[in-house]
Amino acid sequence: EETSEAHRPIKIAEVGSRHDELWDISLRARIDDAMQAGEIFCVYQPKIDTVAGTLTGVEALVRWHDPERGFIPPMKFIAQCEKAGRMEHLTRYVLQTACNAGRLLHFRGTAISMSVNISATLLGDMRIVGIVRNTLQATGFDARYLILEITETSRIGDLETAAAILTELKALGLRISIDDFGVGSANFETLFELPFDELKIDRLFVDSISRSAKARAITSSMVAMGNAARITVVAEGAEDAKTLQILNEIGCRYVQGYALARPLSLTNLLEYKVSSKEVASGT
Ligand code: C2E
Ligand code: MG
Ligand code: MG
Ligand code: MG
């Protein structure tokens, strides 16, 4: 098991808050170099079908290991990437890395899906469609196995434009997922207007279902809604066996979380096997 999360960010804590702004600026200046230097890479977190006990796919999660600063959390540098206008560039890089990894997995006989996070800020114009199309062509990865997770849906500027772009993307053969559902205003209007195939319930809810009846009721209704609409529902952030069992009881079949697997390096992913004792089915 992983891994890179283990020796995580010591150096970041040393940066005092008054230096934050300066630090952010130098971070922005370093992003392009870091991509060139290979300091930015992906890890892959398994998404498990807990009923069948199989690996259905992985989510590519970007990592930045700066030789001087250590690991920089994605939430931190993604925000900087947005500010610096480099989000499109980072996304192209991650897509290419992930599709290459997906292709390799398929070659090795592991035909699983590959999920890539796409910031909603890129749904403002059609350029993202060209980027995805070109990446699929260049890598030879089968579009039917690609899932684009739309994050930060609250930042969708114009729903109609976003819906049109997602429709074009789906026409390439891939699937669309709404990430962090329940937080960040992925509201019912968003759900109603956007074409998508999967909902990912945010960790905020999943993490609490073993302790809070309220969280359990809310999560259960999100699962029921998705199941009724024939949309794949994925719970993210399941950290223990009890949470897995409750997810099983409320009919949430697909799960990601530390209880099942941490994000893995590609090398570790190639060796990964779902262990039957890890899944909730039958318990
Ligand atoms: P996300 O897409 O919702 O990804 C799930 C996050 O939850 C990941 O954090 C993952 O490592 C973490 N996680 C998964 N299972 C558990 C668990 O059981 N317990 C806990 N405590 N955490 C768990 P990570 O990798 O730090 O990524 C944070 C966010 O950064 C992602 O949230 C996503 O919004 C964003 N992100 C990551 N990679 C990319 C990328 O390539 N592009 C864009 N636009 N955003 C990305
Ligand atoms: Mg995601
Ligand atoms: Mg999420
Ligand atoms: Mg999240």
UniProtKB/TrEMBL annotation:
Residues 24-277 form the EAL domain. The keyword Transmembrane applies. One of its GO terms (molecular function) is cyclic-guanylate-specific phosphodiesterase activity. The keyword Membrane applies. Keywords: Membrane, Transmembrane, Transmembrane helix. This is EAL domain-containing protein. It comes from Qipengyuania gaetbuli. The chain holds residues 503 to 785 of 785 of the full protein.
